[in-house]
Design a protein that fits this description.
3-stranded antiparallel β-sheet, two-stranded antiparallel sheet, 2 domains, Arc Repressor Mutant, subunit A
Length: 203
């Protein structure tokens, strides 16, 4: 069982390491010193973060099949080397490639990585006139759940609840959904397949 897990872990690390090796990060030479396994793990993280920006620590750790201490160690090294940066988001710490996103992008990606807010954003991008009741029905959740998620989106500057629900940054959100759809879920991928030609914003 352990041998099988180690094999899958190595395959996962190699796949993301190939992306990391080609990533245009700078200032990472000191972070890459060490054994072959260390380099491969770090390159995997460097490949993973740009393709899954805003992923929180536990998701990154689990997707790359890393131990908690192992992931913490390499992320600290990469942050110190200026390759990645992190922000605290409620109970989560989310990771981004350094210097790539502004603060609004980071907030938007943080909410897009949450199931209910992401579903609301997709629904409102499809139908800007959707009501709270429409959103609850579409997502299969309660109205209080929609209201709580809407309050968070409003606090983040992504939603205006003055007169119904209106996205304040629809082009930005559309672009982020389309660009990183594969890192969200099947619904985001399906949305991106239909919406890619509409993108006008380029962060």
């Amino acid at each position: 069982m352990t041998e099988g897990f180690d094999g899958r872990k190595r395959e996962t690390l190699r796949r993301f390491a190939a992306v990391g090796a080609a990533a245009p990060f700078v200032g990472t030479a000191s972070a890459d010193a060490g054994s072959e396994d260390t380099n491969e793990t770090r390159e995997a993280i460097r490949g993973y973060v740009p393709t899954t920006p805003g992923a929180h620590f536990s998701k990154l750790r689990d997707d790359l099949r890393l131990g908690t201490g192992e992931a913490q160690y390499h992320l600290r090294k990469l942050e110190a080397a200026g390759a990645v940066e992190s922000v605290k988001d409620a109970d989560y710490r989310r990771y981004f490639p350094a210097g790539r996103f502004d603060e609004t992008d980071k907030r938007a990606l943080g909410y897009l990585r949450r199931e209910t807010p992401r579903g609301m954003v997709l629904a409102l991008l499809r139908d800007p006139d959707a009501t709270g009741a429409d959103l609850a029905a579409a997502l299969g959740v309660s109205r209080p759940t929609i209201s709580a998620a809407a309050a968070g989106l409003e606090d983040a500057g992504l939603l205006d609840r003055t007169d119904g629900y209106a996205l304040t940054e629809p082009e930005r959100l559309l672009t982020l959904v389309v660009r990183y759809a594969d890192s969200f879920d099947a619904e985001a991928v399906a949305f991106a397949d239909d919406a890619a030609s509409l993108v006008a914003y380029d962060p």
